[in-house]
UniProtKB/TrEMBL annotation:
Protein name: 3-hydroxyisobutyrate dehydrogenase-like beta-hydroxyacid dehydrogenase
KW Oxidoreductase (keyword) present: yes
Lineage: Bacteria, Bacillati, Actinomycetota, Actinomycetes, Kitasatosporales
Xref: Gene3D superfamilies: N-(1-d-carboxylethyl)-l-norvaline Dehydrogenase, domain 2, NAD(P)-binding Rossmann-like Domain
The species this protein was found in: Streptomyces echinatus
Family matches, as InterPro entries: 6PGD_dom2, 6PGDH_NADP-bd, HIBADH-related, HIBADH-related_NP60_sf, NAD(P)-bd_dom_sf, RedAm-like_C
Amino acid sequence: PRTPLTLLGTGAMGTALGRAWLAAGHPLTVWNRTPERTAALTAEGAVAAASAAEAVAANRLVVVCLLDDASVGAALEGVELAGRDLVNLTTGTPADARARSAWAEERGARLLDGGIMAVPPMIGAPGAFVLYSGRPEVFEEHRDTLAVPAGTEYAGADPGLAALLDVALLSGMYGMFAGITHAFALLRGTDVAPKDLAALLVPWLNAMAGSAHGTAERLRSGDHTSAVVSNLAMQVAGSGTLLRTAAEQGVSTELLAPFLDLMRRRLADGHGEEDISGLVELLRSR
Ligand code: NDP
């Protein structure tokens, strides 16, 4: 028999998670602030509880997937949590996760925090994963159930770690989105089909993403000048080409300029022989 569980929050993500558990045969109790939004899951066999308190009382394992940390506080206000294992998949900051964990422990519950690295259509399919941190016993005990909607990565006992890594991954993603946005803008006034740029950009970005391993190694050793193939001085010299091309195309440099400014500052500080990884030290010194 599959472990029964409760799901608080049947928005886009909660509904995708719930579907995966139902499809795998887990008895599922659901609650949502707007009750109509549980219909998709009750049609597939979930039981809707009349209140969050009733939903929490139904099962020891309670997965929470609400908009933000404030909604978690609002939904669970006054609800009896003693003896529950709360798995909080609501996105928040590391401090939110630590405070919510202490809040749960004060109420006699154990909390595992999670950061979902997927969009709803990816849930239940390969590639989706959830970063977890907090109570290791909760992760061990429920790992088979947690592995149903997405892969699992346990980051450590500090409840803030999953949120920190989640935001680190999202931050890397937004840097990539910024670059992609600028790249497409550069096609202004040309006959280049956007799809032709995409066909070049995707393999290029995939090839460049591996540079993160080099950055990791340089941060470990503390030596940003080892095995450098594109030193900072050369890259700063080349950055003028990027800025002038944007000017020629009539495209704003507002996404590109902040990063190029950091490169110039690091060079001015005397680090021209370094890899771009040295910029991490510059950001940390602020
Ligand atoms: P939705 O906007 O679809 O759903 C939000 C949910 O939060 C609804 O159940 C909503 O209830 C509930 N809610 C909002 N405010 C309150 C409140 N004050 N009290 C009680 N319940 C409240 O968002 P998602 O399902 O997409 O996102 C849920 C979580 O998953 C978020 O933390 C998000 O960051 C995370 N996530 C989402 C991803 C995505 O691509 N969608 C990707 C990765 C993480 P109601 O129906 O009543 O409004």
